Amino acid sequence: MGAAVVILAVAAIAAAPLVVSTYHALLMLPFMAYAVVLLGLNLLFGYTGLVSFGHALFIGLGAYTGAFLTTHAKIRSLELILITAAALGALVAAPIAALCVRYVKIYFGMLTLAFGMVFYTFVLKFYRLTGGDEGMPFLRPSLLGLSLDAMPKIDYLVGPYYYYSLAVLALAALAMWRIVHSPFGLCLKTIRDNPTKAETLGIGVTRYRFYAFVISAVYAAVGGALLGPPTGNVDPTLAYWTHSGNIVFMTLLGGFTSFFGPVVGAFVFIYLQNWVMSVVPYWRLIFGAMLALIVIVAPEGLLGLVSRRRAVPAARA
Amino acid sequence: MILRARGLTKLYGDFLALDDVSLEVDAGEFVSIVGPNGAGKSTLINILTGVTRPSAGSVRVRDREVTGLPPASLARLGVARSFQLVQVFPDLTVLETLQAAVVARLGRGRRFFASLARDREVQEGALEVAELFGLGDERHVPARQLPQGDKKLLDVASAFALKPEIILLDEPTSGVSTADKTAIMDTLVAASKRVGLKAIVQVEHDMDIVFGYSDRIVALHQGKVLADAAPAAIRADQRVMDTVVGRKAGVSRAPAC
Fold first, then answer.
1. Residues A277-284: what's their mean pLDDT?
2. A303, A300, A268: which is closest to A287 by C-alpha?
3. What average pLDDT does this structure show over B127-153?
4. Is residue A308 over pLDDT 90?
């Protein structure tokens, strides 16, 4: 049943550019990029029980890596960009994680927020390297060694780039599925549920939190790099703290208690934001009210509502 | 000699919770630590399992100095524990809880991409302990939905799944009805023989349980060892019986002799 839904969803995403308008197909690009980010974020949030308010740092890091490589280093290969973004994500995350995972709850959240703002200030102020508040261009990357510069931009985005993104998302989801169903994944869940007890079973709590943090940062950096090409430009708002808030919102919206909840959250968020922005100027007001409603009425998000109706054994306490 | 504690002292500000306590546990022993509230029983257990650092004194496991090692390291050295206030993973099932312990014991927690479901050693190890503790029928039930007695059993069972050499139980039967207490203890003792556990140390208030199962009893009072002797000797010692049993409010049981 679950597998069938996933296959159908992938098929629907694959068919979308042929069926829906170009406008809507283009909206799928940030959705897929955010879905990669959120798969990682939820390893930390839903599976390890740590809420980060600083993961925009890693999104920004990934996006700026791509922009830097394509404009300054003349490297256009998206494979190389994604690998570099992932490696840099892990490298930057390691010292931050080592410090942050010693804290939990609000202290953890505030520390991640602080690091996020340090990075934001860095990209804003180091004008020479980052272009400051104007940002920098993310030149069109080549895919699998093919330079596609001759293609019209829209054709490139809803064609090869679209399916490339989908492939990256599918691979990222597959890898994450294996991670959460591995012995490592089980250890994370014990830490989420009861760190004291986990520790007495011999599970080194801070070490596992560290791993989860670094993996989530790698996902955020890869997703961040994927965000660049559709706009062709990266700017500091990618690393701003409200962006960290947005991805936490997406996770809550879809539901952090299920594997695909955050992915659904990303989809609904992107389309809803697009729609609300087109009808009223106060989209933040509407989204704020929605967030409050979700936390109160459906703390397990949209997928939580669905699974509860299927009468799966009781909701989480 | 499995466990040897020497001169354990713990100060909380000006309060002397433990005062020069020494304790040895040999292979094959079932040792009960008794004493009125505030005698330092939990402090002692917490020091022996690495949760609390002693202000002075040392703990050795076999011949290894372990003072100050964190609980996770002690667990890997064969020292397991259960808690006075039952500790479970609310959203994990009985089987998942035991699997986590087996994963930790086998050192497989860093298998990031391996399939847990296909790890036969972990699956069978967990199932075996579940059966041993009579939790087989509830193996797919999340811990939070278990009755209190079974939560207690699961807490202890997960410690057993570590295949420790010695296990320290902080009031294994607290919060459980009298009828269930003996059942829990019998299960526990039977299981300990099956998994090759070398020694059990428990903190317990229920003197029937203490006298019924212990090889040796250590009585604490105001942070000091008041007596360390076989059950019969403890029972015969009026001074100890008065201190440990007599003053306990709510348990109006007279010394049983």
1. 85
2. A268
3. 93
4. no
B89 close contact with A: CB closer than 8 A: yes
Distance, in angstroms, between A44 CA and closest chain B CA? 14
Chain B residue closest in CA terms to A206: B72
**Residue A104 DSSP symbol:** -
From first CA to last CA, the distance across chain B in angstroms is 32
Interface residue A190 vs chain B (CB under 8 A): yes
Q: Which two tokens stand for residue A153?
A: 């931009």
Q: Mark out the alpha helices in A182-260 (DSSP H runs).
A: 183-193, 195-200, 205-231, 241-254
Please say whether the beta carbons of B5 and B67 come within 8 A.
Answer: no
Helix, strand, coil share (%) of chain A residues, nearest 5 = 75, 5, 20
C-alpha B140, offset from chain centre: 25
Model pLDDT, residue B248:
45
Query: Looking at residue B174, what DSSP letter applies?
Result: T
Instruction: For chain A, say whether B167 makes contact (Cβ under 8 Å).
Output: no
Domains observed in chain B: 3-246 (3.40.50.300)
User: Exposed e or buried b for every residue in A129-143, given b needs 16+ CB within 10 A?
Assistant: ebbeeebbebbbbbb
Res. A180 pLDDT band, cuts 50 70 90: very high
Question: Is residue B193 classed exposed, middle or buried when 0-12, 13-18 and 19+ CB atoms within 10 A define those classes?
Answer: exposed
Write down the ipTM of this complex.
Answer: 0.89
* Type of residue numbered B208: D
DSSP state of B3: E
Give the whole-angstrom CA distance, residue B42 versus residue B220: 11
pLDDT in tens, A218-244: 999 999 999 999 999 999 999 999 999
Element (H, E) at B236: helix B231-236
| Count of CB pairs separated by less than 8 Å, A with B | 112
Please tell me if residue A171 touches chain B, with a CB cutoff of 8 Å.
no
Distance of alpha carbon A298 from alpha carbon A302, whole angstroms: 7
Give the residue-averaged pLDDT of A27-42.
98
CA–CA separation, A28 and A162 (whole Å): 8
d(CA B156, nearest CA chain A) in Å? 11
* Helix/strand/coil for A55: coil
Chain A residue closest in CA terms to B116: A182
CB–CB of A200/B48 below 8 Å?
Answer: no
pLDDT in tens, A123-143: 999 988 888 989 999 999 999
Distance of alpha carbon A287 from alpha carbon A290, whole angstroms: 5
**B136-175 b/e (C-beta count within 10 Å ≥ 16 → b):** eebbebbbeebeebbbbbbbbbbbbbbbbbbbbbbbbbbe
